[in-house]
Specification:
Elements lengths: L4 E11 L31 E2 L1 H16 L2 H7 L12 H6 L7 H10 L4 E3 L2 E3 L1 H7 L11 E7 L8 E7 L5 E10 L2 H20 L13 E4 L18 E6 L3
Length: 243
Amino acid sequence: MRLRKIIRIRSVLLAKTGLRIGMSKDQMAIGDLDNPVIRNPLTDEPYIPGSSLKGKLRYLLEWSLGGDYILKAKDRHVYASPDPKDPVARIFGLAPENDQKALEIARERGPTRLLVRDAYLLEDSKRELERTAARGGLYTEIKQEVFIPRLGGNANPRTTERVPAGARFGVEMAYRVLDDLDEEYFQNYLLRALELLEVDGLGGHISRGYGQVYFLHPEKPWDAQEGLPLKERLLVEEIALGA
């Protein structure tokens, strides 16, 4: 087993509707937001953690494959496939159980193929979002909502912070190719997961309209890419490695 090449994927992730990836708050003061977004602690800018993007891609691929992936998910267990060629485990990684058989499978499977970087706001998107400061936080909007119990009761107001529709983030991923099967899985599974993300969504409150996203080629005009196939909206480069 040898690393043959790395496929680098670059794209711009457009928030077509408000995007919310939340953070926990250990303490809350009077007047604080109920649901703040996650921010870079050095710049205070909202961003998309690579773990959030990678986790959602894995989730969507597992549900599209069905079978044991779903049965184990209902039991709150990660499906540890005994097949070293399992696409989810190869692409996204799987920590082996502490037994000899699982370790042998992990060695045959090899390292995690997909690396997902944190995605940060593009500079031109930051400038556009600065105009929202009067309506919310830094680069965000504050959405006022009211929760009304369906069986009766008092209405409960809540405030949710989200990145406004139109925000653009720079996305970068690296995919390790060690054999021919990795080439096949890139086309058949990873690209499928990216397509499913556009159909489903990213972040919280998707069922309430949040989190619709769309990939854009970073070197093409934004407004000319609506409706293009996903492959035409990704900048894919292959980095070959010598023997």
